[in-house]
Amino acid sequence: MTGARRFGRHLLAALGLPVALLGLWWVLSADSQSYYLPPLSRILGAFPDVWLTSGRLRSDVLPSVLRLLTGLVLAGLLGVGLGVLVGSSRRLRAFCEPVLEFLRAVPPPVLVPVLILFAGIGNSMKVLVIISGCLWPILLNTIEGVRAVDEVLAETCRCYGIRGPARLWHLVIRSASPQIVTGLRQGLSVGIILMVISEMFAASNGLGFTVIQFQRSFAVTDMWTGILLLGLLGFLLATALRLAERRILGWYFGLRRAQRDGS
After folding, report:
1. Among 90, 96, 73, which residue's Cα sits nearest to residue 149?
2. For residues 181 and 245, is the Cβ–Cβ distance under 8 A?
3. Which of 75, 87, 123, 206 has the smallest C-beta neighbourhood within 10 Å, fewest atoms?
């Protein structure tokens, strides 16, 4: 299969269902007289005025995206670092597992009031809330990835005297990288939710703040445009992460393709 055909199939698979659902929403809401469920045509018509020409892209969307990316990057660094450390030691893993399971079970939104006490209501609190939710999928996936390092490859490294940073980078990180990227994808979804929640609690800008302001002022159509924008933002960030995954893990997808073709 050529690259163009493969790209076309991936594009159709990615956009087919969202376009079909939007078409269904358009048809079902076309004659809606409900104040709370306006027609999709009215929502899409208001979208440019609400977000593109009003300056909200810079005043609200950009701060939200920066908070989300900052939290995700810091959670990634922390999760991968701790995951490699815990996953490399069976005793440390057994010692930490009950604590990790306990902390993972605590819903991050309930930490918002606590974090406000310690970090105030500025950007620090919002980034900490995002980190508190993104950390766990990245950490737990990294631990599993490190734990599942191929014993044959580990023994080969030992025989060739590959130790220290070289072993960490070429064996441990590369073997665990598919799991790490899976954790990042899960963390991104959690991060978007927590970004909105943290901005709803105490903020003067951001997507969550703006959507809740629209709701409180009964600007229902504008509120729906914000919800659509959040979905679009999540889709674009997930697509960017997927493309980066294809680029970084090209060896992994090539290996899986070769295994499928050989079986």
Report:
1. 90
2. yes
3. 123
Structure tokens belonging to residue 105: 């079970």
Cβ-contact 206, 64 below 8 angstroms: yes
Tokens of 30: 């076309």
The predicted-structure confidence for 198-250, as pLDDT tens digits, reads as follows 888 777 889 999 999 999 999 999 999 999 999 999 989 998 998 899 888 88
E-state strands within 101-253: none
**pLDDT at residue 1 is higher than 70:** no
- At residue 263, the pLDDT reads 62
Residue 122's φ and ψ, nearest 5 degrees, are -85, -165
- Token pair 């950490």 in the structure block, residue: 139
d(CA 190, CA 206): 17
What gap in Å lies between CA 221 and CA 219, rounded to an integer? 6
Tell if the pTM clears 0.90, that is, is over it: no
Instruction: Band the pLDDT of 44: cuts 50, 70, 90.
Output: very high
SS3 of 120, please?
coil
Q: State yes or no: pLDDT of 2 exceeds 70.
A: no
* C-alpha triplet 87, 92, 98: angle, nearest 5°: 95
Tokens representing 49 are 């005025």
Q: 190 near 68, Cβ under 8 Å?
A: no
pLDDT value at 262 more than 80:
no
CA distance 25 to 53: 25
Rg (CA), the chain: 22
